[in-house]
Amino acid sequence: DANSQLVVGVILILFFAVIATGFFGVFFLHRVAGPVFRFRQVLARMGRGEIPNDIQLRRRDFFKETADEINKVIYLLREFEKASHAAEDLLQDASQEKLSPKASSRIKEIHNVFAALKKPSS
Fold first, then answer.
1. Among residues 13, 19, 36, 98, which is most buried (max CB within 10 A)?
2. CA dist 82 → 57, 77, 87, 105 (Å)
3. Angle made by CA atoms 10, 12, 18, in degrees to the nearest 5
4. What b/e readout covers 16-42, taking b as 16+ CB neighbours within 10 angstroms?
């Protein structure tokens, strides 16, 4: 009788331990898999030549430092894009002026460089 109670007690303890382990496993997996999924989405958009929105993680998600670093990269890409547009506008204004053929040719080369920067490489 004591042996059967001991076996039943051990089985119940193991059952609840497995359930608790599964619950915490899913909880932590959710806190890891969510950020990894968001990182993958953002990096895929960047790979297509887009500048994505900042990564927003939930309060208890892991990898917040990594998200902050990726957001810094996104910020720098936005700043580069602004500077690129400003430079193109200046070049457009300069190309309207009367310039030597050599200067006009250089401006066209610079326009081509900017155009190549906007196209994602496959």
1. 36
2. 26, 9, 9, 24
3. 100
4. eeeeeeeeeeeeeeeeeeebeebbeeb
pLDDT band at 119 (very low <50, low <70, confident <90, very high): low
pLDDT at 116: 81
Numbers of helices and strands, H then E, in the chain: 3, 0
Please enumerate in sequence order all residues whose Cβ is within 8 A of that of 87, keeping only pairs 6 or more positions apart, or say none: 114
**Closest to 121 measured CA to CA, from 46, 38, 39, 53:** 46
- Distances 33 to 38, 40, 59, 84, 88 between C-alpha atoms, Å: 9, 10, 14, 36, 41
pLDDT above 90 covers what percent of the chain? 48
Amino acid at 67: A
**Residue 89: exposed, middle, or buried by beta-carbon count in 10 A (0-12, 13-18, 19+)?**
exposed
Spatial separation of the C-alpha atoms in residues 93 and 82, rounded to whole Å: 17
Contact assessment for residue 77 and residue 47, using Cβ atoms and an 8 Å cutoff: no
